[in-house]
Design goal:
Helix content is about 0%, strand content about 50%. The chain is built from no helices and 11 strands. Strands 2, 4, 5, 6, 9, 10 and 11 form a 7-stranded mixed beta sheet that branches. A 4-stranded antiparallel beta sheet has the order 1-3-8-7, with no helix packed on it. The chain is globular, with a radius of gyration of 13 Å. About 30% of the residues are buried.
Length: about 120
C-alpha cells in the first residue's frame, strides 16, 4: 500500500497562509483518492479536501471553500494543501490519507491509509 508523510505545518497569525505537503510512496494508482483531514482537540475528524488521482476532480468542505486548494504534482507522488486566509478555527492536526478505488472522493468515502499528521496553529 501507499506510505504517506506530511510536512509544512506550523504557527501563523490569522489571515496568513501555509502550504502542507504529503509525500506518497509505494503503490500509487490513478484509481485512488488522496485527501486531507483535520482534527482539533475535543472535536471529530473532518474531511477538508480531496483529489482523485485519475482525473483531478476535487472536493472541499464548506468551511474551507475559497480559502484552501488541493493539488498534486504530475507524478502523483506529492499532494499539496495550500491554505490561505487562515482562521483560528483552522487550528488542528492535519492528516493526509489515501483511499484506493474508483468513485467520488468526498464523504462518506472511507480512507484507510494515514500519515502521522502535521500541526497547524493559527493565532488571532
Amino acid at each position: 500500500q501507499v506510505q504517506l508523510v506530511e510536512s509544512g505545518g506550523g504557527s501563523v497569525q490569522a489571515g496568513g497562509s501555509l502550504r502542507l505537503s504529503c509525500a506518497a510512496s509505494g503503490y500509487i494508482y490513478s484509481t485512488m483518492c488522496m485527501g486531507w483531514f483535520r482534527q482539533a482537540p475535543g472535536k471529530e475528524r473532518e474531511g477538508v479536501a480531496a483529489i482523485y488521482n485519475g482525473g483531478g476532480s476535487t472536493y472541499y468542505a464548506d468551511s474551507v471553500k475559497g480559502r484552501f486548494t488541493i493539488s498534486q504534482d504530475n507524478a502523483k507522488t506529492t499532494v499539496y494543501l495550500q491554505m490561505n486566509a487562515l482562521k483560528p478555527e483552522d487550528t488542528a492536526m492535519y492528516y493526509c490519507a489515501a483511499s484506493y478505488g474508483v468513485g467520488l472522493c468526498s464523504p462518506p468515502r472511507r480512507y484507510n491509509v494515514w500519515g502521522q499528521g502535521t500541526q497547524v496553529t493559527v493565532s488571532s
